[in-house]
Amino acid sequence: MNRIFSIFCFVLILFLIGPAQLQAQDKYWISFTDKRDVKYDPFEELHPDAIARRQLEGLDLMDSTDFPVNEHYIESTRDLVQSISTVSRWLNGLVCFAHPEAILQLEKLPFVKEIHPMRSKRVEVSEVMGEENRSLQTQFKNRNEQILKAQTEILGRTVFEQMGYSGEGVRIAVLDAGFRGANEHQSLKHLYENGQIDGAYDFVGRDENPYHGSAHGTAVLSCIAGKYGEMPMGLATGSRFLLARTERNLWEFYSEEEYWLEAAEWADRNGAHVINSSLGYTSDRYTWEDMDGQSALVSRAANMAARKGIMVVCSAGNEGSDPWQILGAPADSDSVLAIGGIAPWTGLATSFSSYGPNANGSHKPNLTAFGYAICASGNEAALEMLPGTSFSSPLIAGFVACAKQAFPELKWKALFEKVESAGHLYPYYDEVHGKGVPQAQRLFTESIVSVANFRFEEDGEEVKVFLEEDFIEQDYPMNRTIPFVYWKICSKEGKMIRFAVVLAEGTRGAKIPLRFLEKDQYLVVHYKTCTQEYWPNEKN
């Protein structure tokens, strides 16, 4: 009994002093000066598709950012620190836990360029992924069947099917919190039966089993390539996949951005053409000013992935109705297609979809898709209707894969712009809907025919928008006729000041009070395919 009591006391003491020991060491980013004396053969280290991607982009196959980090530098650092958690080729550095006195010694080493402290706070996270979490069995109510059909139809599934595009030849890396049940779920079984999973890795557990933890990644994967019977749940049913678990599902550490960086580098070396990330990092670790596409580690990683020719697609975030409101990292990056969410039953942005612009004023989100989608759950047969931009992002990732298959000769930037300009609102945009929902047909149309389907009248107090009768009827995702007019007020530099979406009544599209417009501001109105500017006479 005394021995058991002694062991209990010892364990209790370890439990009590453990946090203190952890707090005695801090987390640091160590940057190195060079990659001298490292060996690198791109044809040995890179997947043939990764080499082909670089050649398409005109990139040097001997780019030093692809070289491994100097092992002498790593081991010399390891001798002084408590532990190393992440090593990055792209950024030529590593993350470590160390006591302050060790940092003083590291600063003296000739190959150490910079040392920056990193925050290592942990935050409890919730499994809730939006405003509601409603489980559906394999038998749907009529409305859910409509959503399942419409979540791909609205993007132009029929057009892609007729042209034979399902993302074949395109490899998509999915970076998420876990893929519990994905390898057993009926909606995803074709991916495993056909050998379409090219790699899987758990960057948290450091093994090749990401099929535990959260089922969030399972739901996301189904929105890219799932099938309910013969009905596609996503557009890229023919793509190949790399699955990377980069988050814990019970506790969220700042180290998750490090895992994201590692996973992006891994995806690059393994030939990914597209990365989908339904993850975001906001107020728990950053300020609004940090959302500039460059400050967050995960945004810098996304920028580097784009530099390597990878299309990065990311959810804008679910904080539109929270105090934070704006989008998070890495959706803040100009190199990332940030995806907002719309409600299937209206076609308008959901209340939770995060806003743009980013802190530099760049237009965000870029595009939108259904913010409520039918997804696979952790149960091998069940489906769920889940809310969140976590699911609008993979729907667009599938669209991107089909576009990549259709236009394999396009470089990253050209494909990015082509997908963005396929938005149904383009060239109009606002900071909630972006350029709208991309349409497959627009990818294959040289130019969109814009017919002047409305006119302006000013009476001294307001600007009125009148619609032509022939243009009032409009089909929306759930087969409802809802004629919406989008309008915004911009500064002379083009910065959006105010915007709204209104329901047209008869031929009256909108009324905008002139008091809303200051000097040198102008009005932009969009209806269907037509976008027009209006400068009030008395303000010119």
Key structural traits:
single chain, 540 residues, alpha/beta, Rossmann fold, Immunoglobulin-like, 3 domains, seven-stranded parallel sheet, four-stranded antiparallel sheet, 14 helices
Mean pLDDT: 88
User: Describe the biggest sheet?
Assistant: 7 strands, parallel
Number of strands: 25
* Helical stretch tally: 14
CATH architecture of the largest domain: 3-Layer(aba) Sandwich
Given as residue ranges, the uncertain stretches (5+ residues, pLDDT < 50) are 4-23, 123-140
Write down the domain tally: 3
Please bin the fraction of helical residues. 25-40%
Shape: globular
CATH class assignment of the largest domain: Alpha Beta
CATH superfamily of the largest domain: Peptidase S8/S53 domain
Beta-strand residue percentage: 15-25%
Through-space gap between termini: 91 Å
User: What name does the CATH topology of the largest domain carry?
Assistant: Rossmann fold
The strand order across the widest sheet is 8-11-7-13-14-15-16
Topology:
Elements: H1 2-23, E1 26-32, H2 42-45, H3 48-57, H4 71-78, E2 83-88, E3 93-98, H5 100-106, E4 112-118, E5 122-124, E6 134-136, H6 142-153, H7 157-163, E7 171-176, H8 189-193, E8 197-202, H9 216-225, E9 227-228, E10 231-232, E11 240-245, E12 251-253, H10 255-269, E13 274-277, H11 297-307, E14 311-315, E15 336-342, E16 367-370, E17 372-376, E18 383-387, H12 389-406, H13 412-420, H14 440-443, E19 454-458, E20 462-467, E21 484-490, E22 496-503, E23 508-513, E24 522-527, E25 530-534
Parallel strand pairs: 7-11, 7-13, 8-11, 13-14, 14-15, 15-16
Antiparallel strand pairs: 1-3, 1-4, 2-3, 5-12, 6-18, 9-10, 17-18, 19-20, 20-23, 21-22, 21-24, 24-25
Helix pairs in contact: 9-12, 10-11
